[in-house]
Amino acid sequence: MSGAAEAAHRAPVRLHLLILDRYMLTELGGPFIFGLSAFTLIFAAASILNIGKLVSNDHAPLWAAIEVFVWSLPNTIVLVIPMALLLGTLLAMQRLSGDNEITAMKAGGIAIVRIVAPLLVAGLAMSFIMLFLQEEAVPFAQDQEAYLINEVINSSAFGNDLTVHAPLPGGGQQVTIATGYEPHSQALLKVTLIQYNRDNEPTQVVFADRARFEAERWLLDNVSTYRFSPDGTTYLEHAATTEVEIGQTPTEIVKRLTHGDPEQMSRAQIMDLIRSGQLTMGELRKYATAYNEKLARPFACFVFTLIALPFGLRAIRGGGGGTSLGFGMAVAIVFVYYVVATFFSYVGDAKLYLAPIAAWMPNLIFTYLGVRRLRKVAAA
Known about the structure:
Layout: H1 3-56, H2 62-98, H3 101-107, H4 112-153, E1 163-167, E2 173-177, E3 180-182, E4 187-196, E5 202-214, E6 217-228, E7 234-244, H5 250-257, H6 267-275, H7 281-296, H8 300-313, H9 322-350, H10 355-379
Antiparallel strand pairs: 1-2, 2-4, 3-4, 4-5, 5-6, 6-7
Helix pairs in contact: 1-2, 1-4, 2-4, 2-8, 2-9, 4-8, 5-6, 6-7, 7-9, 7-10, 8-10, 9-10
C-alpha cells in the first residue's frame, strides 16, 4: 500500500477516536457539574447557616458575612471534587450502559479500556488541578476569610496570636504586635514593636507597615521610631528599612495561627515546620502524616473515577432511579474510602517511617480494586 493510501486509510480511524474522546468527556461533563453542585451545597449548608449567626449574633455587616461564605467555598470545592467525579462517572457510565451504547461501541471493535480512557485521563488531570488548588488557592482564600472574621467582624487582629514577647539583652523585654500575617510572603502587617527596660518602662516604640522575613532576619518597612530618654524627651526617627529581632520565625507564627492544626497549612509550611527541628516526636509524626496525605489526597480524583467505572458498567438496565441509585452508591464508596483513609492516618501517626506508605495506601487499595473489577467487566 502506498504512503498516501495508507494515510487515507488511517484518517477515519483517527477522527473516530477523537470523536469518541469528545463524546465520553461530554457525557461526563453534565453529571460532574451536577455532582459538584450537589455536594458543594450539602457541605456548604453549615457555612450558609453561619452567615445568619454572624449577622444576628456578632452584628456583622451582611456583605462581610457573605464574603466570608464566598472565601470558604474554595476549601469546600477542593473537598467535593473527587466525590463529584465519582458521581459523574457513575451516572455517565450508567446511562451509556443502560442505553446499550457501550454494547454498540464494543460491537464496533472498541475495547472497554479505550472507551473509558478519556475519563481516566480526566480524573488524572483533575488530580493535578486539585493539588494546585489545595496548595495555592485554598491558603489564599483562608487568609482572606480569617482577615474578614478578625478585622471586620470581630475588630481584632487575631487576638493574642500575633503578639510576640521576647527578652532583651541586659534585661527588659520586647513586645511585637501585628494586625495580620501573609503566609505566601511570610510578612507581618501593620507592626507595632515596644521595648521595655528592666523596670518595665517603655524605652522605644516602633511602627512599621510590614515586617518581612528574609535571609533568616526580620526587616521592617516604612519605619517610624519613637525613643524615650530618662528625662522624658521623645525623639522621632524615620527609616525606609530597619532590621530587628522579633523573637519568632514565620514557621513558629504559622503554627500558633493554625493552633497546631496541619490541615490549615500548605505542604510548604508543614515542611518548614518539620525542618525547624522544634517539634516533639508526637508532633513530628502528626505533621509528617499530614504532609504526605496532602499530596496523596488529590489523587483520589483518579482513584474515584477508576472505581466508579466498573460499577457504572454493571448498571441495571431499564427502570428509573438512575440518579438516586448513583448518588447512593457514590456516598457509600466515599464513606468506605474515608474510613480506610482514617485508619491508615492513625497508622501513619503511630510510626514516622510509615507516614508516606500509610498516606498512599487508600489510593493503592482502591486502585487495585478498581483495576480488578474493570478487567472482569471488560472480559465479560
